[in-house]
Amino acid sequence: xxxxxxxxxxxxxxxxxxxxxxxxxxxxxxxxxxxxxxxxxxxxxxxxxxxxxxxxxxxxxxxxxxxxxxxxxxxxxxxxxxxxxxxxxxxxxxxxxxxxxxxxxxxxxxxxxxxxxxxxxxxxxxxxxxxxxxxxxxxxxxxxxxxxxxxxxxxxxxxxxxxxxxxxxxxxxxxxxxxxxxxxxxxxxxxxxxxxxxxxxxxxxxxxxxxxxxxxxxxxxxxxxxxxxxxxxxxxxxxxxxxxxxxxxxxxxxxxxxxxxxxxxxxxxxxxxxxxxxxxxxxxxxxxxxxxxxxxxxxxxxxxxxxxxxxxxxxxxxxxxxxxxxxxxxxxxxxxxxxxxxxxxxxxxxxxxxxxxxxxxxxxxxxxxxxxxxxxxxxxxxxxxxx
Length: 387
Description:
- It is a single chain.
- The chain is mainly α.
- The chain contains 15 helices and no strands.
- It has helices at 2-25, 27-34, 38-62, 68-85, 91-119, 125-153, 156-177, 189-193, 199-219, 222-228, 234-261, 264-281, 289-317, 322-351, 357-386.
- Helix 4 runs antiparallel to helix 5 (91-119), helix 6 packs antiparallel against helix 7 and helix 9 runs antiparallel to helix 15 (357-386).
- It is globular.
């Protein structure tokens, strides 16, 4: 029965992830409608990520003892407010709406991860986390293509109006059906943040930052890359995003179950290695569409397969402070996304092309791979000392 509750939480992640991912798919439309540059439109991604990163841990800390259902409802209320503000066709208001959406989405995601872990037996935590991550890939499979289609049929503001209505429905479902899930055990601020004294945790947080920063350098401007360099039209881009979402869905499931069976460390090293290699190869084959699609597919596969493994590894490294660690991790992820969107936009401004973004992304993800190796070695030494 618990798996149905996890699917319920995943549906909410689908809605919040769609609000995040769809903007990258309609940057051209937003920029044109608001009469701003593509680079400035990309900062809507930056604002979302900064709000997610800076304020999620604060809200999670002050609600850590609340019943999980109440925290989920609070996050959805913030999400609805952000969706409503997104309808106003003014850049400043839309920017503010991204802040509200970032906070609401961040708190929902962290709470969903923590709730899924509590609803699952210890040997199935990875699979549960993989299911939650499936909400992101589902947003790519359905949310982003549908959002692009709605933009063509109506306008981009309609996407957020629909998301606001659906989040209200989601809140009613959670209120009615989700069982009672207790919050964390009472602990002082100092006790909870003692985990930051661990070199293993700090290095894992840096891994998240580098990994997601590299992803964002490419993914924020992926539709621009497809349009300008691969010469794909909007319909083809939507179809390709659908295929990439399917790849991500399979990868998320494999990553979660693989972390349970093979260990998170092995999954992370393998996926990061493939990720780096595909990024460095991407600019070299822009004249070969099939090769480019395969490389982008490998990037998506490694990204989504590594995500559940990293989240599972965090929970196992600090089970007594899982909510805090997960919130800090999601903050680092979105700081990385903000840094990647910003640096990717700066690179485009300097070079007037998106051709070199994959190389910058590859360098940053390679730093993440090095940090992963260091973190795992540090953890092994710590385990040997305590034995």
